[in-house]
Design goal:
Uracil-DNA Glycosylase, subunit E; five-stranded mixed β-sheet; 5 helices; hydrolase; DNA repair; Uracil-DNA_glycosylase-like
Length: 177
């Protein structure tokens, strides 16, 4: 099973960061391709996309300012199969990616993704008070996996907070001399 390609560009509005690709994503080469994953529905219902996209359109979201990567590149059935060594390697690679591409918001799709990246525990949903990469807002959202017991509505409400962050950044940028 091969890793799937990242979709990256400089200055993205949001870089979505998952645990790792599912087996289905590894088979198709597209992010959030498992039919039980609610990602595409959630970001549309949160108002982040004008319509519900399909996994095979993941590269098209670069036009909207959205990119995709994972903390670990190896596809697995569940995140429980990821080793500590893979997380450690992935953390360093991910930090380099964020430093290089400097998205406005780094959205960690899963609390565990952020905990492995930051080394912090007990984090809250939403914007984090301190970023490891200055100037990049770190945002923690629930995993969109069908295995997560939160309702789609609850997850969507958390993702929706990124609209407010984006509006806040636009205002702050326009207030600068």
């Amino acid at each position: 099973m091969n890793p799937i390609p990242d979709h990256l560009d400089y200055g993205l509005a949001v870089l979505f960061i998952g645990y790792n690709p599912s087996i289905r994503s590894g088979e198709t080469g597209h992010h959030y391709a498992n039919p039980n994953n609610r990602f595409w529905k959630i970001i549309h219902e949160a108002g982040l996309t004008p319509r519900k996209y399909k996994p095979e359109e993941d590269g098209e979201l670069l036009k909207l300012g959205y990119g995709f990567t994972n903390i670990v590149a190896r596809p697995t059935k569940t995140a429980a199969e990821i080793t500590k060594a893979e997380y450690n390697t992935g953390r360093l690679r991910l930090m380099g990616t964020i430093e290089k591409y400097r998205p406005k918001i780094a959205c960690f799709v899963g609390k565990g993704v952020y905990e492995h990246y930051s080394g912090k525990t007990g984090v809250a949903w939403g914007e984090q008070p301190e970023s490891l990469v200055p100037g990049v807002v770190e945002f923690v959202a629930p995993s969109s996996s069908g295995l997560v017991r939160m309702s789609t509505g609850e997850i969507t409400d958390i993702f929706r907070q990124m609209n407010d962050l984006s509006a806040k950044q636009i205002i702050e940028t326009s207030d600068r001399p």
